[in-house]
Design brief:
264 residues, 7-stranded mixed sheet, 5-stranded mixed sheet
């Protein structure tokens, strides 16, 4: 498998998808003043996913596809080459802000991430990695992650998980938020993962994500020495929904051992 060739095609398609999304901005704003904006963004999500599927099937007809909008394949195993596509990660931000969203593409082989591409459309920032070859932002190498502690860290998490909820005991989260240097929430798993990769935040955790939310980010973060698991410290299978915790190794372990203690 020539991953560099697949990566080249994927980058071209991601940039073209970004152009299509930017061209929709004026139309989106016009329609938002007249009707339900959720209909429009759903149409754009579907259009972009179908665009990727057409491109992938035309060049790599034997590859499988898992997409958020359901136009890909129904997968029961990770065997073969699988593209995990989120055409617009951060849909609410796209509707309300027209920023803080991203196109996210992960390419996996037999369940192992080989390529990760996350494109911040508005800022024209393409985060990309090929397994074993480093991670980059617009072609410039991203430095390896530095070790931090909770008290030194900015942690990305949604405030929902610090309130009473049915996914985790919120009392476990309160000390983590209290002890961290600060917390942030951006509303897009893809960007929050690359913010970990670039050191803009030190850890990101969520209780409910789909494979296309974290597939690309996992490749990028792991290429920089980061850890990507669920909140129990278990490996992700990239076929089903799960929780997520990603950080540098020391911080990742500290959060699990000293704060989450899930299942202990």
């Amino acid at each position: 498998m020539i991953w560099e060739d697949i990566d080249t095609h994927a980058k071209e398609w991601v940039k073209e998808a970004g152009d299509r999304i930017r061209l929709s901005f004026e139309k989106t704003l016009n329609i938002e003043t007249k009707s339900n904006p959720n209909d429009l963004v759903t149409n754009i999500d579907k259009e972009i996913e179908q665009f990727f599927i057409h491109k992938i099937r035309s060049v790599y007809p034997d590859h499988k596809i898992m997409g958020e909008e359901g136009f890909g394949d129904e997968l029961k195993s990770p065997e073969g080459v699988v593209w995990l596509i989120d055409p617009i990660d951060g849909t609410m931000n796209f509707i309300h802000q027209q920023r803080n969203f991203a196109v996210s593409i992960g390419v996996y082989e037999n369940g192992i991430g080989q390529i990760g591409l996350i494109y911040d459309v508005v800022h024209d920032e393409l985060y990309h990695a090929i397994r074993g070859k480093g991670a980059f932002l617009n072609g410039k190498p991203i430095p390896a992650l530095k070790e931090t502690t909770v008290k030194e860290s900015i942690i990305a998490l949604n405030a929902t998980w610090v309130m009473e909820n049915h996914r985790i005991d919120h009392n476990l989260m309160i000390p983590l938020v209290r002890d961290a240097r600060g917390t942030r929430s951006y509303g897009t798993a893809a960007l929050e993962m690359v913010f970990v990769a670039t050191g803009r935040v030190d850890a990101y955790l969520s209780m409910r994500l789909s494979p296309w939310d974290f597939a690309a980010g996992a490749v990028i973060v792991e290429e920089l020495g980061g850890i990507v698991t669920n909140i129990k410290g278990e490996k992700l299978d990239f076929l089903s929904k799960d929780s997520l915790l990603t950080a540098n190794p020391g911080l990742h372990q500290e959060i699990i051992n000293e704060y989450l203690k899930v299942g202990q």
